[in-house]
């Protein structure tokens, strides 16, 4: 049984999708061991508690990044995590924390990286006039929205879309893509060649 930790700062709809897919067997032999947040008022914590998942809060306000990440690391350690999934975690991880979990931290981003990194990616894509948007699940490294790509899903932009309709369709694909990426990583049959994730057959 593999232990997954979730980091979130808000409601964490991707966390809910991962939890559903574990419960239904779409992510086999895994459980969410802990949900951690830097905000005590994050809606995802209440959802985790309803599901009987342990929760921890490591407040980040007024702390230097590395100090906060060391506290977070100490809080996560007892849960023996095989994988950490960021689900709307609104803090950049320090290089030190990333190094504690090499190729074991995943993030999902609502664009086809390397296009539109950072905040409000759907709004950026819509304003730029792209015809195809989407989402990317990638390993977290020391740079923002940068690590090797595991899964991408494309979402065509319709003529009558606005930012909100586009964002909601991208979110549907995020919920599918994240679980697909978790299965790839937990199965472990891949290698990173340069920036490319190559799956073994």
What's the Cα radius of gyration? 16 Å
Specify the structural class: alpha/beta
The fraction of residues in strands falls at 25-35%
Level of helix content?
25-40%
Helix segment tally = 6
Oligomeric state of this protein: single chain
* Biggest sheet, spatial arrangement of strands: 3-2-1-4-5-6-7
The coarse overall form would be: globular
CATH topology of the largest domain, what is it called?
A: Rossmann fold
Element pattern in H and E:
EHEHEHEHEHEEHEE
Main beta sheet = 7 strands, mixed
CATH superfamily of the largest domain: Formyl transferase, N-terminal domain
CATH architecture of the largest domain: 3-Layer(aba) Sandwich
The beta-strand count equals 9
Look at the structure and give the CATH class of the largest domain: Alpha Beta
Q: In terms of per-residue confidence, which ranges show pLDDT below 50 for 5 or more consecutive residues?
A: none
Provide an overview of this structure:
This protein is an alpha/beta fold and 201 residues long. It has 2 domains: 1-101, Formyl transferase, N-terminal domain (Rossmann fold); 107-201, Rossmann fold. Helix content is 35%, strand content 25%. It contains 6 helices and 9 strands. The chain has helices spanning 13-23, 43-50, 65-76, 95-100, 121-128, 163-187; strands at residues 2-8, 30-37, 55-57, 83-86, 105-109, 132-139, 149-156, 190-193, 196-199. Strands 3-2-1-4-5-6-7 form a 7-stranded mixed β-sheet, sandwiched between helices. The protein has a two-stranded antiparallel sheet with strand order 8-9. Helix 1 (13-23) links the parallel strand 1 (2-8) and strand 2 (30-37). The longest helix has 25 residues, at 163-187.
